[in-house]
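If your schedule permits, I should be very grateful for your opinion on a structural question. I have a record of one protein: its chain in single-letter code and its fold written as C-alpha cells. Would you kindly read the sequence against the C-alpha cells and tell me how you understand this chain to fold? Thank you for your consideration; the sequence and its C-alpha cells are set out here.


***
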Amino acid sequence: MRRLRLSELPEVNEGHILKSVLPGEFIYRGGLSFMKPGQRSHSNDGPGGRDYHAHQDCEAFVVLEGKGFVEVNKIRDPIREGDIILIEPGEDHHLIAAEENQLVTLWCHAGPVPQYKMADERKE
C-alpha cells in the first residue's frame, strides 16, 4: 500500500489524473462508494466466503469525505479526506468507516485499454 495526498499529485495535461501513481494509460473500471458509519467493505466476499479481497492489478481509493481506516493484509491505518490510497496487486484490502461519520470514496483501476474498447472486445 502507498498513501499520498491529493495536493501531492502533479498537474496532468493528458490522460487520467492519477497517471503518475496508478499504472495504466486509461481508467477502465471504478465507482463512487458511500459507506455507513462503522461499515467495513468487502467482508467475507472472497473465495468460499472467506474474508479476503484482492486484485491482480493496482486499485486507487480517493477519500472524498469522512474518516476511517484502510486495512491492508490485516494492518489498519487511519485515512481521511484528501488521502489517496494505492493498493498493490495481491494485497488483501478493506475500508472501514469511522463510527461517527459516513465514508465516501472514489475507487478505480487503470490499464492499457479504455473501458469502451474492453466492452467492444467482449461483444466479439
